[in-house]
Amino acid sequence: MKSNFFFKKKKLKVKQIFPNLKLSDNFIINDIKPLNSANRNDITFFDTLKYKNDAYKTKSRVCITTRKLESHLPKTTYKIIVDNVLFELASILKKIYPTADIDYPDDTLKSPSKKTHKFVKFGNNVLIGQNVKIGKNSIIGPNSVIEKKVLIGKNCVIGSGVIIKNTVIGDNVVIQDGCKIGQKGFGFIPQKLKNIKFPHIGKVIIRNDVEIASSCTIDRGSVDDTIIGKNTYLDNQVHVAHNVKIGSNCMIAGQVGFAGSTFIGDNVSIGGQAGISGHLKIGNNVKIGGGSGVVNDIDDGQIVMGYPAVSLRDFLKGQKKK
To answer: Which of 155, 263, 280, 318 gets the highest tally of CB atoms within 10 A of its CB?
Structure first.
């Protein structure tokens, strides 16, 4: 599947972005991608030691990084040394994807065509964008908006007042009333006079058999994708930020919030009102108690609770001492 087909991309050569680049091949930039998925003609970025293992193995020929981090990149990768990696990245994204920093209204929206979607049931006042594809026996509830190029699988149920954009949905998915999926996430570079918006060029991928309860918000990826794994259930008012990846068979209770770029393994259960910080790795078969604040990685099979979240045994010991 093409990475960023939801956004118009300018075809630029690498020396149009980096005029002083000492490469013999002035190749056309294919895309901007994270270290672990970038290919030779993609630009990548490296801004924290947390991703040094990905840096060692990146295939990209050009990486934006800092003087302190450049030694972790392959010799075959040309290093663009900057003071602020994310600021430089935002500037480049804006040049290549000029419309990805603002969610402009979809001007292709119109009432669904019965001829185009003859096996889909629509409620009143539904609007569908250009090149939307919806599988057989799916139902779209009243007052919902499905924006251009969205893909929805078979036997899906989309509730009332749902807005979906920049999203690919599998089969047998249920999305209840009032959900907002695929919008731009929270991202900007603070400056003295003006905050620079960070373009979000990723998408949301929802696998088969997922259920998303009422009033959830799922942001699209910034440079990567946001992914909800197969047979995972989200309760009401869950927020999933950009680039978050939630595994299969997970159970997420109400009002849980995930900060950006965190990875959640398979068979994870999270109690209500827990908060998961960004850029963390939560292992498989983990249980997180309600109201917990997770600020560190969690290994497979752990049960944690509290703020900051610690093992259940340590949490109970702490409670006895009070």
So the answer is: 280
Instruction: Using pLDDT thresholds of 50, 70 and 90, give the confidence band for residue 239.
Output: very high
DSSP letter assigned to residue 29: P
Instruction: Write the DSSP symbol of residue 296.
Output: S
Question: Of the CATH numbers 2.40.50.140, 3.30.70.100, 3.30.360.10, 2.160.10.10, which one belongs to the domain with range 121-321?
Answer: 2.160.10.10
pLDDT band with cut points at 50, 70 and 90 for residue 114: confident
Write the CB contacts of 119 (distance below 8 Å, at least 6 apart in sequence): 135, 136, 137
Helix (H, G, I), strand (E, B) or coil at 67: coil
Note the pTM of the prediction, 2 decimals: 0.92
pLDDT, mean of residues 153-163? 98
User: In angstroms, what CA-CA distances link 11 with 29, 88, 92, 171, 205?
Assistant: 7, 19, 13, 34, 25
Residues annotated catalytic, as ranges: 242
| Residue 104, token pair as written in the block | 């402009």
Pairing of strands 303-305, 310-311: antiparallel
- What is the Cα–Cα distance from 287 to 277, expressed in whole angstroms? 16
| Cβ pair 213, 234 in contact under 8 A | yes
Please say whether the beta carbons of 266 and 249 come within 8 A.
Answer: yes
The domain over range 14-96 is classified in CATH as 3.40.1390.10: yes
